[in-house]
Specification:
The protein is an all-alpha fold. It has one domain. Helix content is about 60%, strand content about 0%. Helix 1 crosses helix 4.
């Protein structure tokens, strides 16, 4: 489940559409905010221990994607 959440939230960055933190179709903002949402925020964040770890894991994934893209031959 964690991998799926990471994939869904970083997919826009992976496909070079937009940074996942600012992509309007991403659930990232809803997951890290305190605003009302229909997303099961507590359940998702619990999989990552806390919000800060969730942010860290997604950020690490973003860095891995960027590193891989630098290595891809065109």
């Amino acid at each position: 489940m964690r991998n799926l959440i990471i994939y869904v939230n970083t997919n826009s960055t992976h496909h070079q559409i937009e940074d996942y933190r600012t992509y309007k179709h991403s659930s990232y903002d809803a997951l890290i905010s305190d605003q009302e949402t229909s997303i099961k925020r507590d359940e998702v964040i619990e999989l990552f221990s806390d919000v800060n770890n969730f942010k860290h894991v997604l950020s690490s994934k973003k860095l891995n994607i960027e590193t891989l893209q630098e290595l891809i031959l065109e």
